[in-house]
Amino acid sequence: MASWSQIARRVRVPLGFGLAVLYFWLAQPTPGSIIAGGCVALVGLMLRGIASGHVTKNQQLTMSGPYAYVRNPLYLGSLVLAAGFAVAARSWVIVIAMAAIFQAVYLPVIRSEESFLRQQFPGFEEYCRHVPRLLPRFTAFGKACGTFSRELYWKHREYNAVLGAALMIAALVAKMRWLSR
Fold first, then answer.
1. Which CA distances in Å does 4 have to 9, 26, 44, 73, 156?
2. Are the C-beta atoms of residues 71 and 154 closer than 8 Å to each other?
3. What phi and psi values does residue 178 have, to the nearest 5 degrees?
4. For a tag site, which of 9, 106, 164, 180 has the least CB within 10 Å?
5. Averaged pLDDT for residues 56-73
6. Domain parsing of the chain, residue ranges
7. pLDDT digits over 10-39, tens only?
8. Cα(74)–Cα(50) distance, rounded to whole angstroms?
9. Which helix (H) or strand (E) holds 44?
10. How far apart are CA 85 and CA 158, in angstroms?
11. Which residues lie below 8 Å from residue 50, measured CB to CB, with a gap of 6+?
12. CA distance 176 to 172
């Protein structure tokens, strides 16, 4: 029998597409909410992009770049991205749905991934003692600079998040214009 974290890992992407449909239906965007939300979302996209250019999944424990400040910069970037879209949508129902999905799906996935990393990399426990899970520290642990790799960015297909965000912003603009008629 699969554990909830294994199920959550499998359903998070399809669930995200389902939430996108609900999101679009419930969104009540205005020019100001789209601009403000877009700015917040851009920060999340940048964090995800930088993190994806540092991580070498399952090969070594990544502690450079944003990983020197927070253990899960990709998930933190996703959380900031979601917050930006919540601002753009102007709907408390969306905020509650996003918070519930993060709590029910993403936190178990994070715990499961950390359990794997703990088994895979002997230095992970020490890293955990110094670097918080989701709220970044203000000073770097270890080698903050590291080297950003465009090849890793493309390998991890992080551009899909940028394309998806751009399409949703365009859809919100179209919905706003349609609603204003």
1. 8, 28, 27, 23, 25
2. no
3. -65, -40
4. 180
5. 90
6. 8-165
7. 777 777 788 888 899 999 999 999 999 999
8. 9
9. helix 31-52
10. 18
11. 65, 66, 73, 148
12. 6
